[in-house]
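Hi, here's the filled form for the chain we discussed.

Project: internal
Contact: R.S.
Residues: 146
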Amino acid sequence: MFYVVLSYQEEEEEEEGEEKEKKEKEKEKEKKEKEKEKEKKEKEKEKEKEKKEKEKEKEEKEKKEKEKEKEKQKQKKEKEEKEKEKKEKEKEKKKKNGGHRYFGCSGIDCHCPSIVAERNQPPKGRTDQRRNIQGLVEADTGIPAR
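And the returned structure, exactly as it came back:
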């Protein structure tokens, strides 16, 4: 009988040992699952941080581009203003010199570009009107007007 009690105790101890092992395994599994969850959370946090950083970078790039565009517009305005001022100064000079670009130009055999252009223009008046009318008649009918 003593032997039966010992074997019964051994069986109980073995069962308790198995139960302890199962509990330990379950605890290990739970720890692993918790670690995996922590890792997932950390990865998600890192992804969110990266997204925020990318958004910040995009915003900074957009701001820089807007600033560049503003600077370009300012430069264009400045250039236009300078060109207007130059044109106004040239007009004032021409008015003072009677259309002559060069100061002290006598006007006889003048080579100032504006005066030469005026000389080379065809005479104004009826001849221009007749030419225009003839051109229109030719265009409409296809027959020369002469």
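Let me know if anything looks off before we file it.
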